[in-house]
Fold:
Amino acid sequence: MRITQTGLLTCDPSKASPGLTLFAPLEAHNAYLLNMAGDTVHEWALGEPVGGNVYLLENGNLLTAERSPEGPIGVNGKGGFIREYDWDGGVVSEYIDHAQHHDMRRLDNGNLLYIGWEEMDPDKATRVQGGIAGTEHNDGSILSDYLKEVTPKGDVVWEWHMQDMEIENYPLHLEVPRAEFAHMNSCFPLPNGDVLVSLRRNSMVAVIHRETKKFNWQMSDLTWGMQHDAQMLDNGNFLFFANGLSTATFPHSRVIELDPKPKEIVWQYKGSPPFSFFSPHISGAQRLANGNTLICEGVWGRFFEVTPEGEIVWEYISPHEFTYFNNDKLNWVFRCYRYTEDSRQINNRVSA
Structure:
């Protein structure tokens, strides 16, 4: 897909789910709120470049993962500064962990759950299976993921470490570097306190039991192609963006709704033809109130809403670009979210 137009491309008011769409371009210092016509109706100025997830809390404040110049180098999804902004852009709170990456969530108890990197113990690193031989970091090390829950005062009250799992049971995808085990890119708190996670380089979605710190549900499927944004829907099913990297002669992405009990796909969206919809990394999806699904095709900065039958009823492409290291102009977006006017997040401050 070649970007030939930006802004609003499609809107069918009779079928689209009305609301405000939030997004924050990667590497930008801004977050934007769009109405259904594709107009920016509110924005926030951020202190550092966007590095990962950005979303609205129920009080209408903005929670961001912003890129720190410190911490691990040569990694993607880097955050480090987790900041909360009020509606007018004032900083309400800040938590710093220079190893934080990709995702973070404000819990109902006010605590913060987030993903971070740590260097694996050398003996554990030798047990990592799969990946491309010789692609560890220059010093031979491998980074692994951890989860931490911290209080508003910064006290760690719960943590989990990927390197404490049975490492041999979770091989990396054969076509990825061995520098990271396992590149967690989402952490979704479940009502019972467990955490649903996406492990990209294992093409695996799993549930971490809060007490035992073991996986009490897991599923891996190479056809997902190193997925993103695993979440639980109100009906108990799991929704995620299957990137589809290295999975076919013509790679293509899908959005999958999975019933976790029989481990069966109950709904999916893919392009027509399939290769017309493909984002090899980042990206996400959100199930909307009317049953439609909002999709962020991240590497194209494309947000579009589809009906259960797959009809596109709203579509927008971000005009905000940044310059990559080889001078390419990119408009990548990690995720986007839709909020109704009367939601707690928007509270009728602006109109859709």
